[in-house]
Specification:
transcription regulation; LysR family transcriptional regulator; DNA-binding transcription factor activity; LysR_subst-bd; 307 residues; WH_DNA-bd_sf; D-Maltodextrin-Binding Protein, domain 2
């Protein structure tokens, strides 16, 4: 008989597992919704309980020791299996919440304004939304992931990715912008070459790609303020700091309310908005409302935004 009393606390093992996956206490704290100090304490207590060092610490990063690698292999296997079994049991009940992960900018600007419509369409669905970045795939505790991806999709084992819609990007700015009043009507795309262009570090090719699709040279573009996240870029656009560039999905409400205008329209990129779900028939059960939610998302995304 195994002696479970020799096991360290489950919470400490879970904290270690997340920190080992990210090799970062800060990113583990973000995923677990705790402080950096709480993660450090859990790891320190685990190391004390086991009598061995699990990480080598260099600056802000963490590197697994040999003992840490052995434990990480075990926690990934056993905690992952436990999560799959618990998830399968919970998701066999249609009343269980559907946890959907999506980029924070998409969550704030597209999804939240439509929560009322979703509730009307799927009244039995209890949806929990969580913010992520475009590089984050399906993880334990999450039933589906919305993100922008460029084909071919590198699906992990036992996952399925479906395309909900193509990405279209375009420049946006305030309707009372002096740059519009000084330009011809409709303004030529060349006007943009001399304007302050806002950009994000996550999509450095957005402006060059748009220029290429317009037949314009991107050399000498006047890059103004850069931002870490697209949501911040759009807020800066709304206060008139420059011309932003964004997928049309994210500015639908701003265009509809005429807080922003898109005088040059939008062009398709190679990226798609996708929904990743567990494969049907695998060890991890798919939530009973997954298909209905996917169909609703596809219908809503197919609605053409006002340009």
């Amino acid at each position: 008989m195994e002696r479970t009393e020799l096991l360290p606390p489950l919470n400490a093992l879970r904290t270690f597992d997340v920190a080992a996956r990210h090799e970062s206490a800060s990113r583990a704290a973000e995923e677990l919704h705790v402080t950096h100090g709480a993660v450090s304490r859990q790891i320190r207590q685990l190391e004390d309980a086991l009598g061995t060092r699990l990480f080598d610490r260099a600056g802000r990063g963490l590197t697994l020791t040999q003992a840490g690698r052995e434990l990480a292999t075990a926690t990934r296997h056993h905690l992952g299996g436990l999560a799959r079994v618990c998830g399968a049991l919970a998701r066999s009940d249609a009343r269980a919440p559907f946890v959907l992960s999506c980029p924070g900018s998409f969550l704030a600007r597209w999804f939240i304004p439509r929560l009322g419509a979703l509730k009307d369409a799927l009244p039995e669905l209890e949806l929990h939304l969580t913010a992520s970045d475009d590089n984050e795939g399906l993880r334990n505790g999450v039933d589906g992931v919305l993100r922008f991806q460029t084909p071919p999709f590198d699906d992990a084992e036992h996952q399925e990715t479906r395309v909900l819609g193509t990405e279209r990007i375009g420049p946006v700015l305030r309707p009372d912008s002096e740059w519009l009043s000084e330009a011809s009507s409709p303004p030529s795309p060349e006007v943009l070459l001399g304007l302050p262009l806002l950009h994000t570090r996550s999509r450095p090719q957005a402006w060059p790609d748009w220029c290429s699709r317009q037949g314009l040279s991107s050399e000498g573009l006047d890059y103004a303020q850069g931002f870490e996240h697209l949501n911040y870029l759009l807020e800066a656009t709304l206060v008139g700091l420059g011309v932003g560039i964004a997928p049309d999905y994210l500015v639908e409400e701003d265009l509809r309310s005429k807080r922003l205008v898109a005088p040059w329209g939008f062009v398709e990129t190679e990226a798609c908005l996708t929904l990743t779900l567990p494969q049907v028939g695998r060890a991890r059960a798919r939530h009973p409302h997954a298909e209905a939610l996917g169909e609703w998302l596809a219908r809503e995304l197919a609605t053409a935004p006002p340009h």
